[in-house]
Amino acid sequence: MNIEDLRMYCISKAHVSESFPFDESTLVFKVSDKMFTLAGLERIPHAVNVKCNPDLAVELREKYSSVTPAFHMNKKHWNTILLASEMSTDEIKKWIDHSYDLVVNSFTKKKQKELGFIK
User: Fold this and answer.
1) Burial of 42 (0-12, 13-18, 19+ CB in 10 A)
2) Among 41, 27, 49, which residue's Cα sits nearest to residue 96?
3) Is 19's pLDDT higher than 90?
4) What is the mean pLDDT of residues 111-117?
5) Averaged over 67-87, what is the pLDDT?
6) What is the mean pLDDT of residues 39-56?
7) What InterPro entries does the record point to (predicted)?
8) How many other C-beta atoms lie within 10 A of the C-beta of residue 90?
9) How far apart are the C-alpha atoms of 82 and 92, rounded to whole Å?
10) Secondary structure in 3-state letters for the chain
């Protein structure tokens, strides 16, 4: 997966915005103003930070050498995944989806309903 594919995948999701709130090189994707994915554009090789269930975060780190605790993030809840890694594009998308879902599920039921996630 390359950085442009990552961007297109993230912005295709409902209620996602992209911005550079920290600096000119850290692209942040938010669902209704809550971060679910970050990518450092100047970092080579490219990598993405994703939010993760704490137990799954540890499992991912043990399974893949290209997954590490996320730098400058809560390491219990965030992983960094190298995009050029042994992980397939589908696997990376799965973890982006997981991160997105964790954030959406953290919203109140009222907010989820307002955004159309539940009826």
Assistant:
1) exposed
2) 49
3) yes
4) 94
5) 91
6) 93
7) YjbR (IPR007351), YjbR-like_sf (IPR038056), YjbR/MT2646/Rv2570-like (IPR058532)
8) 8
9) 9
10) CCHHHHHHHHHCCCCEEEECCCCCCEEEEEECCEEEEEEECCCCCCEEEEECCHHHHHHHHHHCCCEEECCCCCCCCEEEEECCCCCCHHHHHHHHHHHHHHHHHHCCHHHHHHHCCCC
Rounded to 10 deg, the angle between the 3-11 and 89-106 helix axes is 40
Residue for token pair 């990376």: 92
Query: Which of 2, 5, 78, 66 has its CA nearest to residue 37?
Result: 78
Domain-by-domain residue ranges, the chain? 3-115
Q: Given pLDDT bands bounded at 50, 70 and 90, which one contains residue 86?
A: confident
The tokens describing 71, both together, are 């730098």
